[in-house]
Write a structure and sequence with these properties.
Layout lengths: L1 E2 L2 H5 L8 H15 L4 E7 L5 H15 L2 E6 L10 H7 L9 H8 L7 H17 L4 E6 L6 H13 L5 E8 L5 H14 L1 E4 L5 H12 L2 E2 L1 H7 L6 H13 L3 E4 L2 E4 L8 H4 L9 H13 L2 E2 L1 H7 L8 H9 L3 E3 L4 E3 L2 H9 L3 H17 L5 H9 L7 H13 L6 H13 L7 H12 L3 H14 L5 H16 L3 H14 L4 H17 L4 H18 L2 H18 L2 H17 L6 H16 L2 H9 L11 H14 L3 H15 L5 H16 L3 H8 L12 H16 L3 H7 L1 H5 L5 H4 L5 H11 L3 H17 L4 H15 L2 H11 L5 H17 L3 H18 L2 H11 L14 H6 L34 H11 L4 H8 L3 H15 L4 H10 L13
Length: about 1000
């Protein structure tokens, strides 16, 4: 059963670990009972338990029948001389002095011989009050006693040495003027015995923590409470705040603390430990908190823009107060808790600027390693990362190549966690800067280490863990994220809101992992249900994305694209955490590209923050961009994106790197550059090229295409054995691009692998039946069927369907195959027309391998209408994509994937009435906003109409739109102004 400690809730602090001090106090009480006087001074830093020892002594004295009087001395602000002494003697139900006597005695020191009369009168009164039973006089806050009080105490202790009177003073080490310090030191030397109080040792601190917690602290609790460094006050305050935040629970005698971060309000709660320090000393402590647990006075002086000597007195004051320790060359915080609390009092911009200054200073001094990198990361500016990136780049270049990247990442994480115990932002910044510096292995190791330590135990920890999980997904560490989420379910079991978020992320990871479709679907629906109940759009967005991925894995592209849009729409309604919006938009762009709408995919990609500003997501962003450019038939641009992605990925070991290498190799093969294709493929480990999933399959497919282009079709089929043997397990990859399925059939037929070709063709037919309104899938199935069966009619239908698939290279491929089939059938004219059109697309796209093949078929026959590399009209027309059906198209009959549902018409005649109204107004010179106002529509709707119109007409500029309007409008109409 869970229970809470009553002591920790009420704030009562048990007296633990003070056996030696209690023995001294008992010895003093024994002397008092025996009729001898004694004066003891409990001395130590703030929070050592002096008040509890005074209370314990008073309780035991009362039990023995010894009288007790005493007071707590306040800071001397306008207080009269001897006031502390008179207050102590006037305390309790049987005081030594009544107020009238105190007033009479207060004037004696001003008279000649008055001091002797004062001491004599006080000694008489005290001895009378002590009687035979004895008297204990306590004074807390003796550090504030004025010189007259100290002088009187010295005389009274000596005068009453043979009386049963015990004096017990509590003195805290606080900064005071030199004369006051010397006066107290003189009193202690002449009249008192000092009992020093040090922090509790380890066993005593653990015992006190156990009593406050109500159970034995587990290792995590012990680590957090250990930051109090045995200071009872700090320990008690920390436990009280943790209890107030609901972060402590005990079960079967073991106390557990949720989270590693300090509780909210910690700095304010423990501020008494630095109360009374001078402003300069306070500033030194705050600067020191930024430099670390131990720091040099020289560096602190540099940050304070002064000299070390200028801070010497402040440093001494901090040491005297027990906050810093003199360790020789460095000053060290006695309690890490104090350092962390002081660091939290610094304003964010101040922290950032000081960290950047420290990083520059350390680097100039020749320091190396995680210390420099950590300060550079924490000092990085969002708007301008170049200064920090430069430092990290230098550090990465100077790192010993033989050092373990994981060890380096672990050390860096430890440095960062000293300042930000749970936040994800420093880790993301570090990964970003390390990636920019080309140190991808350390960046990847840092993500893994941070994710392994992340916990969902507190709101701050849960937010950080969620952001780290998204960061890990961006960098391709899906397995690590899945393992982390399994552990997270134990942390969030009783918290419904956090459990929904874990389910949503778990569903997303399951959808990204091979064979995880069913689990993703089940978990995502559970997350959606919880998200709907809680009104949590974060959960809804992530769950929609997971369902979209699962639908893609099942081969339902229309559903996948719809759900991807829903996920982005949910994100637009509510911020769902750092990096999540980019992840959702990247997936939407990928889904639109596969669906045959690369131009809409380009719109989605424009909303993703640039990879230069966020290099963590850069590899994924460049991969999706490369796929979108490939789909549009722009091979040069696709190659540049893939190369940029590989540079951003560095020399890591992520599946994103292998996919980018596969993409670049595929482009190189199509561009007839086998040397580059082979060189890029060398980056992919042999055992990873066939890893299940879209990313691993892309690298394997690229390797097979390269082998096939070199005339090794048998080796190509063997390279894709995993895919040919179970094509149904790779649906997400096979539907990603309409060139894949036909080429698999082509390679299998060349290798005389009829069984494999038939299996792929059968899957293509099933996918076409599942996606009747998606020309990319229907066309690919018709193309595969035509190749498998040698059916020219199927190839001809594939040509008509793929004209609306938004994929020039897929269209060129089927045009080439249809042209060759027509040649073999003796249909010379049709063959030349189709081969010539394929040639035009190949030339425009830069697909040299296809151009050479077609040229061989055409022989010396001139290619009519061959275009130059700068005329991209054929590819642009082919990339326009399919129309949005007004109603869901009918599914074709079973066994007939060649149904021509969704085959689009071309050109001006294909514009809808709504689109015609919009293009006429735009051609008349109106802006989108003006057109929206004229037609009472939203600007978003106008943008959508224009995008579809541009795609149907194969244009990209408004001036071209005006020409189309003029060419298709009666001669009486003239635009009022030129569209720009």
């Amino acid at each position: 059963m869970e229970r809470e400690s009553w002591a920790s809730v009420t704030g009562e602090r048990p007296l633990v670990g003070r056996g030696t001090e209690l023995a001294v106090l008992r010895a003093g009480l024994d002397a008092t009972a025996a009729g001898r006087g004694r004066c003891l001074v409990l001395s130590g830093p703030f929070g050592m338990g002096k008040r509890r020892l005074l209370e314990a002594a008073a309780e035991e004295a009362a039990e023995r029948g010894i009288g007790v009087v005493g007071t707590r001395v306040a800071e001397p602000a306008g207080r009269a001389a001897l006031a502390p002494l008179f207050a102590a003697l006037g305390d309790g139900p049987l005081p030594v002095l009544d107020p009238g006597e105190a007033e009479e005695l207060a004037v004696l020191p001003e008279q000649p011989t008055g001091w002797g009369r004062l001491i004599g009168r006080l000694a008489t009164l005290i001895a009378r009050r002590a009687g035979r039973a004895g008297l204990l006089i306590t004074m807390e806050g003796a550090q504030w006693a004025d010189p007259s009080t100290l002088a009187a105490l010295t005389d009274l202790v000596h005068r009453l040495a043979d009386a049963p009177v015990m004096w017990l003073l509590a003195h805290t080490d606080v900064p005071r003027e030199r004369s006051a310090r010397e006066a107290f030191a003189q009193f202690a030397k002449e009249a008192a015995e000092v009992v020093p109080l040090a922090p509790l040792d380890g066993p005593a601190a653990r015992e006190l923590a156990g009593r406050l917690l109500g159970g034995t602290p587990d290792p995590a609790a012990e680590r957090l409470l250990g930051t109090a460094a045995g200071n009872p006050f700090l320990l008690a305050k920390l436990v009280r705040l943790l209890h107030a935040a609901g972060r402590i629970r005990t079960d079967h005698g073991t106390a557990r603390v949720r989270g590693r971060e300090l509780p909210e309000g910690c700095a304010e709660s423990i501020s008494p430990v630095w109360h009374g320090l001078s402003q300069k000393t306070y500033d030194v402590l705050r600067i020191g908190s930024l430099l670390g647990d131990a720091f040099s006075l020289r560096h602190a002086a540099a940050l304070a823009d002064t000299t070390a000597m200028g801070l010497a007195s402040a440093a001494q004051e901090a040491v005297d107060a027990g906050l810093l320790a003199d360790t020789g060359p460095l000053l060290a915080f006695r309690a890490p808790l104090v350092r962390q609390a002081l660091y939290a009092t610094l304003l964010g911009p101040v922290r950032q600027a000081l960290h950047a200054e420290v990083a520059r200073t350390y680097r100039q001094e020749g320091r190396r390693g995680s210390e420099v990198t950590a300060h550079a990361v924490l000092g990085s500016e969002t708007e301008n990362t170049e200064p920090a990136a430069g430092l990290v780049r230098q550090e990465a270049a100077a790192t010993d190549p033989a050092s373990c990247a994981r060890d380096a990442a672990r050390r860096l994480l430890q440095r960062l966690r000293a300042y930000e115990p749970v936040a994800a932002t420093p880790v993301a910044t570090a990964v970003r800067l390390l990636t920019e510096a080309g140190d991808a292995p350390r960046a990847a190791g840092l993500v893994r280490e941070a994710l392994a330590q992340a916990r969902w135990e507190t709101p701050a920890g849960a937010q950080a863990a969620r952001e780290l999980a998204v960061l890990a997904v961006h960098t391709g560490h899906i397995g690590e994220v899945a393992a982390h989420l399994e552990r997270a379910l134990l942390d969030v079991a009783p918290q419904q809101g956090l459990r929904a978020q874990v389910y949503a992320l778990k569903a997303l990871c399951s959808a990204l992992r091979p064979g995880g479709r069913e689990e993703a679907d089940r978990t995502a629906r559970c997350a959606l249900q919880l998200g709907a109940v809680l009104g949590d759009r974060t959960v809804v967005a992530l769950a929609d994305a997971a369902l979209s991925l699962a639908a893609r894995e099942s081969g339902d592209l229309a559903c996948s694209t719809h759900l991807a849009r829903e996920a982005v729409a949910a994100h637009a309604q509510e911020s769902v955490g750092a990096g999540t919006g980019e992840l959702l938009r990247l997936w939407l762009a990928s889904a639109l590209t596969s669906y045959g709408r690369p131009l809409e995919a380009a719109d989605a990609l424009r909303e993703v923050r640039d990879g230069r500003d966020h290099p963590v997501q850069a590899p994924a962003l460049h991969l999706v961009r490369a796929q979108q450019e490939w789909a549009c038939g722009r091979l040069a641009e696709a190659a540049r994106e893939a190369q940029s992605g590989l540079r951003a990925a560095g020399a890591g070991t992520s599946s994103l790197e292998w996919a980018l290498a596969g993409m670049l190799s595929l482009i190189a093969t199509v561009r007839d550059d086998p040397g580059e294709a082979a060189g890029v493929l060398a980056r992919v480990p042999a055992d990873e090229a066939g890893t299940p999933g879209p990313l691993g399959s892309l690298a394997a497919f690229a390797g097979a295409v390269h082998l096939d282009a070199q005339g090794h079709s048998g080796a190509a089929v063997a390279h894709l054995r995993h895919l040919y043997e179970a094509p149904g397990e790779h649906v997400a990859f096979l539907t990603a691009d309409p060139v894949v399925l036909p080429h698999l059939v082509r390679m299998a037929r060349r290798a005389e692998a009829g069984r494999q070709a038939a299996a792929v063709t059968a899957l293509a037919r099933r996918l076409a039946r599942r996606n009747p309104g998606v020309p990319a899938v229907t066309g690919a199935a018709l193309h595969a069927q035509g190749l498998q069966a040698g059916d020219p009619a199927a190839l001809g239908r594939a040509v008509r369907v793929l004209r609306g698939a938004g994929h020039p290279l897929a269209l060129a491929s089927v045009l080439e195959d249809a042209g060759v089939a027509a040649l073999r059938a003796g249909q010379q004219r049709d063959a030349v027309d189709r081969l010539t059109e394929a040639q035009q697309i190949y030339v425009t796209s830069g697909a040299a391998l296809g151009r050479k093949r077609v040229q061989r078929w055409l022989g010396s026959r001139p290619v009519s209408g061959t275009v130059t590399g700068t005329d991209k009209a054929p590819a642009a027309r082919a990339a326009r994509g399919p129309r949005e059906p007004v109603c869901p198209p009918e599914r074709p009959a079973a066994g007939r994937p060649d149904a021509e549902a969704g085959e689009p018409a071309e050109g001006w005649s294909n514009l809808t009435p709504s689109e015609l109204r919009v293009v006429r107004l735009v051609a008349d010179g109106l802006t989108n906003r003006q057109v929206a106002s004229r037609l009472s529509l939203s600007t978003h709707t106008i943008d959508s109409h224009l995008r579809r119109s541009f795609a149907k007409l194969g244009i990209s500029r408004r001036v071209e739109l005006a020409r189309h309007v003029l060419a298709n409008t009666p001669s009486g109409w003239v635009p009022s102004r030129v569209a720009k």
